Amino acid sequence: MTPRRRPRQPLQGVPSLPGDSPSALPSPSASLPSSAGLLRLSHRLTSRDLHLARLLAEHRTLTTPQITGLLFAHPGTARNRLRQLREIGFLDRFTHRTPDGDRVTCWVPGLLSARYTALAEDQPPPTPRAVRTAQDRILANPQLDHLLGVNQFFTDLTHHARTHPGTRLLRWWSAERTAAAFAGRIHPDGHGIWQVDGGRPATVGFWLEHDTGSMPLTRIVAKLRAYRALQQTGGPSYAVLLWLPSARRETHLRDELDRNGHDPTLRVATGVHDRGHGDPGGACWATTSSPPGRVQLGEIPAAVDGWAPGGW
User: Fold this and answer.
1) Were 273 and a residue from 58, 147, 225, 278 both cysteine, which residue would form a disulfide, CB within 3.0 to 4.6 Å?
2) Has residue 276 got a pLDDT over 70?
3) Among 133, 80, 68, which residue's Cα sits nearest to residue 104?
4) In the chain, which segments carry CATH 1.10.10.10?
5) pLDDT tens by residue, 232-248
6) d(C-alpha 62, C-alpha 91), whole Å
7) In whole angstroms, how far apart are CA 223 and each of 142, 227, 228, 272, 287?
8) pLDDT by residue (tens digit) across 194-208?
9) CATH says 22-141 is which class?
10) Does position 209 have pLDDT exceeding 80, yes or no?
11) How many CA atoms lie within 13 A of 98 on its CB side?
């Protein structure tokens, strides 16, 4: 009988955690072999390390700059800590060449990280062979650049929250977790809940559709039917964010939406990530139910009535 899986807690903003200062980092000369168990490493692992393990378990891989933006104040500190975590067998990495020709370092769960996240959820820990297979599957994934783009969106949101007091990413769910939570009725690239305090307090739920330009526009528009059906049968009234690679692509998509008679009860907003650059927390969103102009993510009307940490 498979052990009962405990529900994961929603990802919160990343606070300053005890033991995370650079002076608290262990010396790489004191590294342990990868065969060492978690108990022998417990004094060397910080709350931030364990949070990173959970992020990688759900989102499969993150680049060095993404991990820096999510969890660290300085790139040098991030690189140093990641190197140490690799030396003790907690994380592993590979080099990936992007479509632009850049080389990026992608981090994946190591044997000890995978063991920690499995045991934390009352699941059997994976074997070394299973961990190696999972790592190879990420490297060989033909949609790796798309996955990195999705993770960059949420990394940018987290970075925005760290630099703009009063904003916070309350939830970041992967595509797999979101589809499972809604019985496969929708298949977004990710799901989040964004909170803004201050002058105009708001809590905005959203589904993310990250576009790289390879999918026909008619197919993107067709995907909206599933979100509309979910909403009409009592599901959450979250906004659908269409994150597009160019302004030209955005114009053509909005024309396609107009030709198909878009239903205004479904909140849809378009934004542009030109070559990976863009601040999704800023005033970059054009909605289909508002006057012309750009609004911030927190200004998109998307009800979250009935939302609770463990549910919608």
Assistant:
1) 278
2) no
3) 68
4) 22-141
5) 999 999 999 999 999 99
6) 11
7) 21, 7, 9, 19, 17
8) 999 977 788 999 999
9) mainly alpha
10) yes
11) 15
Q: How far apart are the first and last CA of the chain?
A: 29
10 Å Cβ neighbour count for 42?
8
At 240, which amino acid appears?
V
Token pair of 136 as six digits: 């190879």
- The model's pTM is 0.86
Q: What is the mean pLDDT of residues 256-264?
A: 86
C-alpha dihedral over 75, 77, 82, 83, to 10 degrees? 110
How far apart CA 225 and CA 230 sit, in angstroms, is 9
Tell me the C-alpha distance between 178 and 44, whole Å.
33
For the record, the structure tokens of 243 come out as 């994150």
Architecture in CATH of 146-299:
3-Layer(aba) Sandwich (3.40)
Q: Which two tokens stand for residue 175?
A: 């595509």
Compare 5 and 255 and report the one with higher pLDDT.
255
Strands (E), the chain: 62-63, 91-97, 103-109, 167-174, 190-196, 202-210, 239-244, 268-272, 283-287, 295-296
Q: What percent of the chain has pLDDT over 90?
A: 76
- Cα–Cα dist 102/243, whole Å: 22
Count CB-CB contacts under 10 A for residue 160.
Answer: 20
CA atoms within 13 A on the CB side of 104: 22
Residue positions counted in the chain:
312
